[in-house]
Design goal:
The chain has 2 domains: 1-169, Carbamate kinase; 176-257, no CATH class. Residues 247-254 have low confidence and may be disordered. It has helices at 11-14, 20-30, 42-51, 67-91, 127-134, 156-166, 193-201, 209-221; strands spanning 4-9, 34-39, 58-59, 62-63, 96-100, 107-111, 119-124, 138-142, 144-146, 151-153, 171-176, 182-183, 186-187, 190-192, 226-231, 240-243, 253-256. It is of the alpha/beta class.
């Protein structure tokens, strides 16, 4: 039976991606499975804004997407970053096509005015993605989405979860530069979702790790069969297994490496 996997690839992680991932993905496709990649590129966008002397604005710690920042996102995320990823995939035998959520109105959202042209996903139209995957292609998607008044920028992790849900994927992977989930001062071999939530509440899980862990928790709750947070720098590394509580309606394994 064909399986479907979504990979959320951090833009900065791609620059140092373990090339053995290409072989892993080729093996996945060779089994007649399907693959879609949703990528970020925050550091590249920040560099663009610095080079263009665009002042960073924040509201409660969230970057405000001004008209200038949105233009940069279109150029950098939908252009420079995506073209590098697509090129690398194709050069390694992986037939990739670069897209945004605007193409085919595949990802729609509503604006969050407090943050400028930032959108929250409200609808996934999967036809373009599923058609490409059924034909053996890998859609490589950046989180620029369709709003009622134009293009919106969307958080990559939350956008990935929405797409994963809309496509009913079997597997969801976050490829990041983290080595695992640390609780009680050590990396854990196994934790539950409840323990992750407690870690966020106590601030032991903090900073940039919070949206990653929240994305994993949401993926588990969406019923995705297998969820992973993996190091993009080492395809062979092992990590933390996270079990949903046994009294839940499903059990999901989550690995961080």
């Amino acid at each position: 039976m064909t399986k479907r996997k979504l990979i959320k690839l951090g833009g900065s992680v791609f620059e140092q991606l373990d090339p053995r991932y290409y072989e892993e993905w080729n093996q996945w496709l060779a089994k007649k499975n399907e693959l879609i990649i949703l990528h970020g590129g925050g550091p590249a966008l920040s560099a663009y804004c610095r080079d263009m002397n665009i002042k960073a604005e924040f509201n409660n710690g969230i970057r405000v997407t001004t008209e200038q920042v949105l233009l940069g996102a279109e150029r950098v995320l939908g252009g420079e970053v995506q073209s590098k990823i697509v090129y690398a995939l194709n050069e390694n035998g992986l037939p990739a096509i670069g897209l945004t959520g605007i193409d085919g109105a595949s990802i729609r959202g509503k604006q969050q005015p407090a943050f400028g042209a930032v959108g929250e996903v409200t609808q996934i139209n999967p036809k373009l993605f599923t058609t490409l995957m059924a034909s053996g292609f890998i859609p490589v998607v950046t989180s620029l989405i369709t709003g009622t008044e134009g293009t919106l920028n969307c958080n990559g992790d939350t956008c990935a979860i929405a797409v994963a849900k809309g496509l009913a994927v079997d597997e969801f992977e976050l490829l990041t530069d983290v080595s695992g989930v640390r609780l009680n001062g050590t990396f854990q071999t196994e934790v539950t979702v409840a323990e992750l939530e407690a870690g966020i509440g106590s601030a032991e899980i903090n900073g940039g790790m919070i949206p990653k862990v929240e994305a994993v928790i949401e993926a588990v709750r969406q019923g995705i069969h297998q969820v992973k947070i993996r190091s993009g720098h080492d395809v062979t590394s092992q990590g933390t297994r996270i079990k949903e509580e046994t009294n839940e309606r499903f059990t999901t394994d989550v690995f961080t490496s």
